[in-house]
């Protein structure tokens, strides 16, 4: 079926996809709690005639089988919501206080259901298969690993993978592309400063861990500004500093916690080493000690150029507006774990300029983008399978 017909079918599905997206928006669920969401997705796939099974506890795997054996292409959508209180005042606003779809995952799922329906209607027109990955726990960068462990990329073996993500800084329906590094790695660090407590009126009897922690926080910024090549983007952000329980007592210890972002694997390895050495040196100089620990998150998301070329070809054949992304984002995306296993690409789906940013209480997915997203995912799979 010619690509323009795919877009026409996606547009015809728009009312149903909008209704689905809004119903999912009403029932946001946090990481690995997406049970009602998964039930709804399974129901939709059953309606379409696509076999599905659970994976990673609350994830869903579907498979659209073509007319004959061949390679398998995967399409992924994330499912989880955020611990945010919604303030959109939409008729379909979250019915669960303190939880909302503030990152467009409701729209991503609706786009993938639409792509599944388009592909299922064309299963006699291509060889091979399309794996549908509805993944939990993207926001904590832990869901992709669980899905992979549960066979998301095997039986049949996935040879290429695609995904999209809503982007409020592109016009609705525009597809944004970038080869190579698209998003940063994400690691979490913690520094525990151990000093000596005392009465607040007698600081000379203490080794004040709060003062030491403040010196460390200030000094940490020199790692990026003076130890990382300015042409290698990196971020060190301290998001938490805590110590003490009352105003007139110097506590025995204080804690610093933050995030590290990088695009280069080398910079990602180097920054924790420098942070640790710096913190320990400052603490030792003040008569205290510092314990540094690192919790590794996901690697940088780097698009495979050949996969990006297939994605561009799909969007071009559909006649969708396209835009090249000049700079990567320092946000993180656990789609990176799939890209470590198989070549693939993630694109940005324009969600309309002028709206709220991602992860804010007033963000809402733009339903006008649903047909473009559904058509793009279907066309990327068909382009890869040689059936576009």
Explain what the structure shows:
By secondary structure, the protein is an alpha/beta fold. The model has no long low-confidence stretch (mean pLDDT 96). Helix 4 links the parallel strand 3 (72-78) and strand 4 (129-135). It is built from 10 helices and 16 strands. The longest helix is centred in the C-terminal third of the chain and has 21 residues, at 265-285. The protein has 2 domains: 3-183 and 300-384, Zn peptidases (Aminopeptidase, 3-Layer(aba) Sandwich), CATH 3.40.630; 185-295, Alpha-Beta Plaits. Helix 1 runs antiparallel to helix 10 (370-384).
At the first level of CATH, the class of the largest domain is Alpha Beta
**CATH topology of the largest domain, which one?**
Aminopeptidase
What's the rounded overall pLDDT mean?
A: 96
The CATH homologous superfamily of the largest domain corresponds to Zn peptidases
Report, as a whole number of angstroms, the end-to-end distance.
7 Å
Counting DSSP E segments of at least 2 residues, the number of strands comes to: 16
Helix content: 25-40%
Protein traits:
Aminopeptidase; Alpha-Beta Plaits; 2 domains; 35% helix; elongated
Question: What is this structure's SSE topology?
Answer:
Elements: H1 3-12, H2 14-25, H3 35-48, E1 52-55, E2 59-65, E3 72-78, H4 105-120, E4 129-135, H5 143-149, E5 158-167, E6 175-177, E7 180-183, E8 185-194, E9 198-199, H6 209-227, E10 234-243, E11 249-250, E12 253-262, H7 265-285, E13 289-295, E14 301-303, H8 305-318, E15 322-324, H9 335-341, E16 344-350, H10 370-384
Parallel strand pairs: 3-4, 3-5, 5-16, 6-15
Antiparallel strand pairs: 1-2, 2-4, 6-16, 7-14, 8-12, 8-13, 9-11, 10-12
Helix pairs in contact: 1-10, 2-4, 3-4, 4-10, 6-7, 8-10
């Amino acid at each position: 079926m010619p690509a323009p017909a795919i877009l026409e079918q996606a547009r015809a599905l728009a009312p149903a996809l909008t209704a689905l997206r809004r119903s999912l928006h009403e029932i946001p669920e946090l990481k690995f709690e997406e049970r009602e969401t998964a039930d709804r997705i399974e129901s939709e796939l059953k309606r379409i005639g696509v076999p599905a099974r659970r994976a990673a506890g609350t994830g869903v795997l579907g498979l659209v089988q073509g007319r004959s054996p061949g390679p398998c292409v995967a399409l992924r959508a994330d499912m989880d919501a955020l611990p945010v209180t919604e303030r959109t005042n939409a008729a379909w606003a979250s019915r669960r206080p303190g939880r909302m779809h503030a990152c467009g995952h409701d729209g991503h799922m609706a786009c993938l259901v639409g792509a599944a329906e388009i592909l299922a209607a064309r299963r006699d027109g291509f060889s091979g298969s399309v794996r549908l990955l509805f993944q939990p726990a993207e926001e904590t960068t832990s869901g992709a690993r669980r899905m992979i462990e549960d066979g998301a990329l095997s039986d049949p073996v996935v040879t290429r993978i695609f995904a999209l993500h809503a982007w409020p800084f592109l016009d609705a329906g525009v597809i944004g592309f970038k080869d190579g590094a698209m998003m940063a790695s994400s690691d979490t660090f913690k520094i525990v400063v151990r000093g000596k407590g005392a009465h607040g009126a007698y600081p000379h009897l203490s080794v004040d861990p709060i003062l030491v922690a403040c010196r460390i926080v200030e000094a940490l910024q020199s790692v990026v500004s003076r130890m990382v090549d300015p042409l290698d983007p990196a971020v060190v952000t301290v998001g938490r500093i805590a110590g003490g329980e009352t105003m007139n007592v110097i506590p025995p210890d204080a804690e610093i916690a933050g995030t590290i972002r990088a695009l280069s694997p080398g910079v990602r390895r180097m920054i924790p080493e420098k942070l640790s050495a710096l913190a320990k040196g400052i603490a030792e100089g003040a008569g205290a000690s510092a314990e540094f620990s690192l919790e590794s998150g996901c690697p940088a998301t780097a698009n495979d150029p050949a996969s990006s070329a297939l994605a561009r070809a799909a969007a071009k054949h559909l006649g969708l507006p396209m835009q090249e992304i000049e700079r990567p984002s320092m946000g993180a995306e656990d789609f990176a774990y799939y890209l470590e296993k198989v070549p693939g690409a993630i694109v940005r789906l324009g969600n309309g300029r002028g709206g709220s940013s991602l992860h804010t209480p007033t963000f809402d997915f733009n339903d006008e983008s649903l047909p473009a997203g559904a058509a793009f995912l279907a066309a990327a799979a068909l382009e890869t399978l040689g059936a576009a």
